[in-house]
Amino acid sequence: MDEQGRLLQARGVGMPGLPVQGGLQPLNPHQLHEPPSDNGEPRKQDIGDILQQIMTITDQSLDEAQAKKHALNCHRMKPALFNVLCEIKEKTGLSIRSNQEEEPVDPQLMRLDNMLLAEGVAGPEKGGGSAAAAAAAAASGGVSPDNSIEHSDYRNKLSQIRQIYHSELEKYEQACNEFTTHVMNLLREQSRTRPISPKEIERMVGIIHRKFSSIQMQLKQSTCEAVMILRSRFLDARRKRRNFSKQATEVLNEYFYSHLSNPYPSEEAKEELAKKCGITVSQVSNWFGNKRIRYKKNIGKFQEEANIYAVKTAVSVTQGTHSGANSPTTPTSAGSSGSFNLSGSGDMFIGMQSLNGDSYPATQVESLRHSMAPGGYGDSISGSQMYSPRELRANGGWQEAATPSSVTSPTEGPGSVHSDTSN
DNA sequence: CACCATGATTTGGA
DNA sequence: TCCAAATCATGGTG
Q1: Which residues pair with A265 in a beta bridge?
Q2: Cα(A409)–Cα(A374) distance, rounded to whole angstroms?
Q3: Angle A345-A351-A357 (CA atoms, 0-180°, nearest 5)?
Q4: Covered bases, chain C (protein CB within 7 Å)
Q5: Side-chain half-sphere of A96: how many Cα atoms within 13 Å?
Q6: What's the pLDDT at A225?
Q7: Which residue ranges have CB below 7 A from strand B?
Q8: Is A257 exposed, middle or buried (0-12, 13-18, 19+ CB in 10 A)?
Q9: How distant is C1' of C7 from CA of A332, in Å?
Q10: Average pLDDT over chain A, rounded to whole?
Q11: Is A265 helix (H, G, I), strand (E, B) or coil?
Q12: How much is the pLDDT for A399?
């Protein structure tokens, strides 16, 4: 017996946590389960003993061990011993204990599995990641399938996790199989010496599997955690507001104020702005959404800013060096920096007549197209993709009533009119 | 810490 | 699907 234990030990088959039953004691228990002593000395002594034992074991040849085993099997008292063991076993009821009924599928495990599947960590190789990314995109408000930079980064990390997960899983499975066969062989071997029914072996295997699956569950759990962290860092990070860079805000503001009459960048323009600012298209959309609403709510507050950008744009246009409004898809409407007073339909025409044709906001032109004879002013902006067609608001102006009248010329100064603070 | 600025999200409408 | 509007939540500042 002791020899078996030693063999086990020598072959590294110790599983301290494994509930070993039926007399299968793989190790010298008193040595392994020694409580950690405060004083290191005795412990050191123990370790020394164990090492000594191991060394002597390795000195023993396999043949020698086999010979001993054989001797034991052939011992004349062996059948008697076997019978005694059977009797004892029957008395203690060890063999009667029925198999525990099939344990129900652990709901937590199922949850973990489902989550891993949903995240694309488990399940089919490709598509998993993108499915997760798509799901994430949908979760993020489903604005638009941009954020490709973030998502590719996310996908990379996810596939890293996936790789680790699968390799670990494989390792565990392999280890489990190896261990199971080993234990089975061992038990079969032992069954010659002591009573072990096949059922018990089966049960043992079941226990081992459960043990390993609990390890797998830990693996799944930590994988889930990793995915969650990843998600929170990459996707839910949207909650964590980062102010845009100064330069980005400048670019956006420039566009906004130079298109004040119709600050609705087209998809193309948004993309361009996004690229320039190093942000995503949806962030551009958000920014414009916020800007419009906030500008409209408190025009007075933005008057100064508007003037600043009006000057900027005007200067850069006259110098012809302005990069912001000169983009291929963005026709400069710098001249119109002050043409945001489109409120009433009354001064609409005044504005149009007094300004350069290029700068006419689509809103007005469109509404004109409806109300005027065809072939009018529309042609002047026909090439412009800047304005989304959706800007045909019923009354023709995005700001409705809230429109200040002067940002046009900085010389005029702010606060000249804007008697309205509609809000 | 209060307050404001600002990016993001939610809700409801067209 | 985009927008306006309201709201949330965080960042920055005095």
Answers
A1: A387
A2: 33
A3: 120
A4: 1-7, 9-12
A5: 7
A6: 73
A7: A 140-141, 236, 238-239, 241-244, 249, 283, 286-287, 289-290, 294, 301
A8: buried
A9: 35
A10: 63
A11: strand
A12: 66
Nearest residue to A120 (alpha-carbon basis) of A155, A151, A147? A155
Query: What does the pLDDT look like over A127-180, one tens digit per residue?
Result: 444 444 444 443 333 333 334 455 566 667 777 788 888 888 888 889 889 999
Quick one: tokens of A236?
């839910």
The residues spanned by each domain of chain A are 51-95, 107-123+148-238, 246-314
Interatomic CA–C1' length for residue A289 and nucleotide B11, angstroms: 15
Q: Which token pair is A241?
A: 């507001």
- Lookup result for tokens 């937590």: A108
Helix, strand, coil proportions of chain A in percent (round to 5)? Answer: 65, 0, 35
How many residues would you count in chain A?
Answer: 423
Name which residue leads in pLDDT, A214 or A284. A284
| A246-314: CATH number | 1.10.10.60
DSSP 3-state of A217:
helix
Q: Contact, A118 vs A136, CB < 8 A?
A: no
pLDDT tens digits, residue range A9-29? Answer: 434 333 343 343 433 333 343
